[in-house]
Each structure stands twice: as C-alpha cells, then as structure tokens.
Amino acid sequence: MSKQCSQCDARAELSLCFLASTVGRPERLQKCSAGTALCKSCMQSLLDRLGSAMPSAMVARLRAAYTVIDGQSVACLNPSLSLGSANRRGRDDAQV
Ligand SMILES: [Zn+2]
C-alpha cells in the first residue's frame, strides 16, 4: 500500500527515522523515533536544507545512509542490475 509524502502530494518512497543510542555504558539503550514518510525530491531538499543547520559530518552520514538505501531500491526495481546486499536480502526474505 502506498503512502503519501508528509511534505507534498507525491507518493512516499522512504521513511526517515532518528535513532538515539547511549555510548560508553555497559548496557546500550536505544530508541528509534516514529518514521516520517518522504518522496525522493523532499528527501533531497531536506538534505540540502539540513546542510545549513546541522554539522556537516552529521549531514554527510545521513546522506551516505540515504545513498545506500536509494541504490538498493533501484536494484530491487531492476533485478538485472541488482548486486550484493539487495540481492542477498531478497533471498533471505524468501527463506523465512
Ligand atoms: Zn514530497
């Protein structure tokens, strides 16, 4: 079932969440936020705007994660192009 982008009328293509974790403690505590549905255009626009509000290293990490997800979604839509982890994940899902 398709979802609408939270920022425009386009169909959402990904969901953005924030994960907060403790570090330097014996027991790691983690909490993931609820997801925000976004289309690719709004995701790109958000990344561009975050560049002026967030430290560049943080934006670079978010951009790197998005680039991996975007590359895998392209591979899933075009099985002849799929390589590596996207392909393996598909097989793992089939075995469950
Ligand atoms: Zn949008």
Rg for CA atoms = 16 Å
Approximately what portion of the residues adopt beta-strand conformation?
5-15%
Which small-molecule ligands are present, each listed once?
Answer: zinc ion
Helix content: 40-55%
Q: So how many helices?
A: 3
Strand order in the sheet with the most strands: 1-4
Shape: globular
Mean pLDDT: 84
Describe the sheet with the most strands.
Answer: 2 strands, antiparallel
Provide keyphrases for this structure.
3 helices, binds zinc ion, two-stranded antiparallel ribbon, 96 residues, alpha+beta, 2 domains, 4 strands, single chain
Briefly summarize what is shown.
The chain has 96 residues and is α+β, with helices and mostly antiparallel strands. It folds into two domains: 1-42, no CATH class; 51-96, no CATH class.
Describe the protein in words:
- The protein is α+β, with helices and mostly antiparallel strands.
- The chain has two domains: 1-42, no CATH class; 51-96, no CATH class.
- The chain has three helices and four strands.
- Strand 2 and strand 3 form a beta hairpin.
- The protein is globular and about 40 Å long.
- The model is unreliable at 84-96 (pLDDT under 50).
- Residues 5, 7-8, 10, 38-39, 41-42 line the site of zinc ion.
